Amino acid sequence: MRARIVYESMFGNTRAIAEAIADGLRDRGEVDVLDVVTAAEVPDAPVDLLVVGGPTHAFGLSRPRTRGDAATKTDSPVSVDFGMREWLDGVSMPPRGTRAAAFGTKAATPRWLPGSAARGVGRRLRRSGYELADAPVDFFVGGLEGPLVAGEVERARAWGRRLAQQESARLSPRQ
């Protein structure tokens, strides 16, 4: 199985989740992990599974304004003008049978806080022609900047393993 993970991260939390998912996927195949800016610069490669995720900003995917706000709170480089929303707008129609999965990070409290980057990513992937391999998944951070809530890295790794098992079983008749 060949997989690619594309993520957007402001404070490193979403990147850590992407890496943990990749660890789980590597049990069954090759995995590329790319931040969204790099993904926009490299050519599309044929993959069996595309995994895409970003942080929840203002109830959904980040926008230039919310990325600008995040940039003032971190020393990490943040692309203000280009993020997951813009990358997904440019995603081309996948080859038949290519599946995708969506994830996001969001504040753990208050739990009632609506919105999810994961759900937004999932909707956009389906509109682009992908079949989702699983329901979009949110991983939780303590507050707006993190750190990740205890156990979330392990949960992401387990989700990656589950995706790898499902996709390997689905693809094995073709191989």
Automatic annotation (TrEMBL):
One Gene Ontology MF term: FMN binding
Native source species: Nocardia bovistercoris
Residues annotated as domain Flavodoxin-like: 3-164
Protein name according to UniProt: Flavodoxin domain-containing protein
InterPro entries: Flavodoxin/NO_synth, Flavodoxin_CS, Flavoprotein-like_sf
UniProt-listed Pfam families: Flavodoxin_1
